[in-house]
Specification:
Layout: H1 7-15, H2 24-44, H3 68-83, E1 86-91, E2 98-99, E3 110-118, E4 129-137, H4 147-150, E5 159-165, E6 169-174, E7 179-185, E8 190-195, E9 206-208, H5 219-229, E10 240-241, H6 247-257, E11 260-263, E12 274-275, H7 276-289, E13 293-295, E14 312-313, E15 315-318, H8 320-342
Parallel strand pairs: 1-3, 9-10, 9-11
Antiparallel strand pairs: 1-2, 3-4, 4-5, 5-6, 6-7, 7-8, 11-15, 12-14, 13-15
Helix pairs in contact: 1-2, 2-3, 5-8
The protein binds 2,5-anhydro-1,6-di-O-phosphono-D-mannitol (AHM) and magnesium ion.
């Protein structure tokens, strides 16, 4: 085993960084890791099992079939319920937050926001999907945790991470002291440290967005696309276009290689498509910790004050220089549009 560091070993080792830690956060991360392995098992055999059937149908064994995103949701809620550290799970799959009321979670202090299976349009076609999670400490003291405990700014996150179920399965997380990635070794069933201290290059050459929506993009995004496609040797342009349609997979690739992922507002989704609490905040925390930038086109994602559970936002995230250029164009062209409207 020499030279291998498992996720469990790493978490315990890092607990020393938090002088007053009682191990609750470590146990919470461990529980998420265990649920991720169970979800991974099902994702891996998705083409073989009856798991692709619509939720609510019955398989040949007479068991209720579940779609993979419903399955993942159930697994994470169940792991967080039995772990005893979490008082609320807010999940993209449920309309309301889920209060955890179990004998072991009486004194639980943590809130988990989770997108159990992101990239659902890729589930049935064997393309990478992911899980995204975000952890907050509850603000209220005593009594039952409430919606106010969930609606915290991204800057209040104590940890965030994602799991990518790809050609290999990885768990990447931060507790605010850098970003570390662990690859699942199926032969021992453990996540092993494979990508220590991940850093996103300041300048990349990959842009990722759904260009099919071009006509509905704000002017600043159209101008950024033009910029990305214009030849300029000094800045390595034209950039290359890569879009998987799984936020986790697109951002994971850009984190390693350098790039920008954009899901802007569109004419049809004036507030953006992606969710602040389950997708953008955790990814923004990770990318910032890796040296990158995450913006809604005008302001830092982590500074957005959430007002509702399923709040959406536009997102521009990745290599710092690329995001800053996109932000400049967004600001320039939105003010020109405003000036035009006034004139
Ligand atoms: P989901 O949570 O319903 O899976 O939606 C989120 C996904 C992201 O992973 C992905 O980047 C984006 O939606 C793709 O959207 P589109 O198909 O509009 O390009
Ligand atoms: Mg999602």
């Amino acid at each position: 085993m020499s030279g291998i560091k498992t996720l469990g070993q790493f978490i315990i080792e890092k607990q020393a960084d938090f002088p007053y830690a009682k191990g609750e956060l470590s146990r919470l991360l461990r529980d998420i890791g265990i649920a991720a392995k169970i979800v991974n098992r099902e994702v891996n055999k998705a083409g073989l099992a009856d798991i692709l059937g619509a939720a609510g149908t019955i398989n040949v064994q007479g068991e209720g079939q579940q779609k993979l995103d419903v399955f993942a949701n159930t697994q994470f809620i169940s792991a967080l319920t039995s772990g005893g550290e979490c008082c609320i799970v807010a999940t993209e799959e449920e309309d309301e937050f889920v209060p955890i009321d179990s004998p072991v979670s009486k004194n639980a202090r943590y809130i988990v926001c989770i997108d159990p299976l992101d990239g659902s349009s890729n589930i049935d076609v064997n393309v990478a999907v992911g899980t995204i999670f975000s952890i907050y400490r509850r603000k209220s003291i005593g009594g039952v945790a409430t919606l106010e405990d969930v609606l915290q700014k991204g800057t209040q996150q104590v940890a965030a991470g994602y799991v990518i179920y790809g050609s290999s399965t990885m768990l990447v997380y931060t507790t605010g002291k850098g970003v570390n990635g662990f690859t699942l070794d199926p032969s021992i069933g453990e996540f092993c440290l494979s990508h220590p201290n991940m850093k996103v290059p300041a300048a990349g050459n990959i842009y990722s967005l759904n260009e099919g929506n071009y006509v509905h993009f704000p002017e600043g995004v159209k101008k950024y696309l033009k910029y990305a496609q214009t030849q300029d040797v000094a800045t390595n342009r034209p950039y290359t276009s890569r879009y998987i349609g799984s936020m986790v997979a697109d951002i994971h690739r850009n984190l390693i290689k350098g790039g920008i992922y954009i899901y802007p507002t569109t004419a049809g989704s004036p507030k953006g498509k992606l969710r602040l609490l389950y997708e953008c905040n955790p990814m923004a925390f990770i990318v910032e910790q890796a040296g990158g930038v995450a913006s809604d086109g005008f302001n830092r994602i982590l500074d957005i004050e959430p007002t509702e559970l399923h709040q959406r936002t536009a997102v521009f995230i990745g290599s710092s220089e690329m995001v800053k250029t996109a932000e400049e164009l967004m600001k320039q062209y939105s003010s020109e549009q405003r000036a035009g409207a006034v004139a």
